[in-house]
Amino acid sequence: MAQTYIELNRTGDKMPLVGYGCWKVDNKDCEETIYTAIKNGYRLIDGAAAYENEVEVGRGIKKAIQEGIVKREDLFVVTKLWNTYHQKDHVRPAFDRSLKEMDLEYIDLYLIHFPVPIEYVDPAVKYPGGWLQDGQTSIAYERSPIHVCWAEMEKLVDDKVARNIGVSNFNVMALLDLFTYCRYKPATLQVELHPYLQQKRLVEWVQKQGVAVTAYSSFGPASYVTLNEEGKTAKPLLSHELVQDIATKYEKSTAQVLLRWSIQRNVAVIPKSMNEGRMKSNLDIFSWSLEQKDVDALNKLEMGARFNDTVSYGFDLPLFD
Question: Which top-rank group of organisms is this from (predicted)?
Answer without folding.
Answer: Eukaryota
